[in-house]
Recover the amino acids of this structure.
């Protein structure tokens, strides 16, 4: 941040006053603010004073302070805080503000500053020999997408090369600055691609618009009779997903044989008889019993307990 001071006394004019047009404008601007809040117009009035004289003089600061009933120091604080206010005389035909922030710097801002040093003056804020041109380095001006760029008065000149900046400076020096079109200096509109749009160039016909006639009743009925598509339905043909299977998928045939054998044998006979022939995967082989099946181990225990009770009696 540079120290910002007012210009030396020898270049300061003795008085300042708005011209007729700016006086009317200043009165209208002050009236925009509520009573007692007229000081809010300090920035617009200072900027208008700069546009009238090219820079903000001490006399202008005092004039604005008197106009808004403010202490001089308060207006001086504003004028010296914002770098948009020029506190020294600048070129009468152009003051070139070169953006030197990172995106512009990466795209060649240093070369643009060399052009300014070569064509105007080695030092920023210094006038050229004729007093018509000056330059300075400024921070980002919000046109990074079209870097590098410069600001002259209120216009931005973007996508610059050193050669193009030289042409622009020459035009302003000759009083023909208005002939230069602001904005991108290459073949593009705003920040669109160079040479025109590169994508979405095909004309896509909409499937249906509100201008198309509505379908007739027959067409609507025919469309409704079409069965829903099966495209999204899952295709699962694995055997274990057969909805007819109600038992565990493992050895269903053996489980059915066990259940049948248990039905044929009475409970007591089952306990005394030999174990049923083992079939692969059956409960006798260690597989878990079917729900509701009676285990053969229970019957002998009950019989032993009964015998002991009879002996005691
Ligand atoms: S960095 Fe230069 S305009 Fe943003």
């Amino acid at each position: 941040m540079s120290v910002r001071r007012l210009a030396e006394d020898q270049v300061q004019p003795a008085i300042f006053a708005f011209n007729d047009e700016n006086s009317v404008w200043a009165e209208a601007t002050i009236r925009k603010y509520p009573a007692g809040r007229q000081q809010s117009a300090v920035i617009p009035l200072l900027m208008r004073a700069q546009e009238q004289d090219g820079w903000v003089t001490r006399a202008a600061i005092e004039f604005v302070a008197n106009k808004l009933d403010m202490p001089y120091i308060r207006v001086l604080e504003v004028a010296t805080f914002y770098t948009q206010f020029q506190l020294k005389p600048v070129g009468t035909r152009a003051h070139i503000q070169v953006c030197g922030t990172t995106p512009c710097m990466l795209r060649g801002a240093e070369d643009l500053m060399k052009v300014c040093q070569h064509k105007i003056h080695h030092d920023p804020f210094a006038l050229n020999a004729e007093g018509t041109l000056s330059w300075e380095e400024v921070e980002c001006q919000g046109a990074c997408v079209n870097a590098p760029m410069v600001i002259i008065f209120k216009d931005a000149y973007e996508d610059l090369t050193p050669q193009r900046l030289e042409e622009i400076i020459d035009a302003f020096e000759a009083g023909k600055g208005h002939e230069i079109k602001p904005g991108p200096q290459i073949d593009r509109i705003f920040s669109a691609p160079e040479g025109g749009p590169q994508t979405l160039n095909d004309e896509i016909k909409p499937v249906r618009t509100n201008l198309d006639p509505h379908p007739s009743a027959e067409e609507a009925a025919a469309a409704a009779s079409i069965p829903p598509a099966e495209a999204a339905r899952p295709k699962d043909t694995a055997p274990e997903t057969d909805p007819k299977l109600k038992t565990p998928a493992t050895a269903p045939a053996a489980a059915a044989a066990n259940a049948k054998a248990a039905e044929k044998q009475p409970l007591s006979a089952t306990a005394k008889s030999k174990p049923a022939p083992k079939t692969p995967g059956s409960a006798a082989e260690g597989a878990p019993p079917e729900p509701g099946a009676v285990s053969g181990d229970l019957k002998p225990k009950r019989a032993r307990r009964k015998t002991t009770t009879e002996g005691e009696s």
